[in-house]
Amino acid sequence: MGLETKVPSGILLTSVEKFVGWSRAGSLWPATFGLACCAIEMMSTGAAHYDLSRFGMEVFRGSPRQADLMIVAGRVSQKMAPVIRNLYDQMADPKWVIAMGVCASTGGMFNNYAIVQGVDHVIPVDMYVPGCPPRPEMLMDGILKLHEKIKAGQLVERPRKHESMQDFRRRTGWIDPVDEPSADQRTHLPQVPA
Ligand code: SF4
Prior knowledge:
globular, Rossmann fold, binds iron/sulfur cluster, mainly alpha
């Protein structure tokens, strides 16, 4: 649903990719979302002393439809898991997730039936921040590392270093437009009997 769906594959300048990554990283909007004690540290990070607005993300949005970053701050109960998934699905694409603290990352010391043992069982996680609770400096470090990851992101899939085109096709299912039969050729393909 993001810009990726609009750009034709194979013809994109790297500098455009860098510009898009830079602008995305500098304008993350987090969803207002806290589950347990870690949320207090997350709130401190947004307050005046640590000042998240330095990174273009002081606006914690009240609606998931206006947010593209979810900071899962606190343990995730089984009851809360479907709610988190629902909120994640409602967020705008492209979107990112930070698991803040040991509870969100792995369940932490709550190794029991009531707590999901890591929010990555429910939604994909881009960055894990360790600690119980992580201090605001640690959360900011995770956010800055996420910025680097976003800046390095590719708009279209490309072969990795030393990857052959054959392996690339196998991994991504990519079809070279040159190899793809034209509409005219397709009408003359032999028909497979039903
Ligand atoms: S990691 Fe520690 S501070 Fe964070 S939710 Fe778990 S128990 Fe609370």
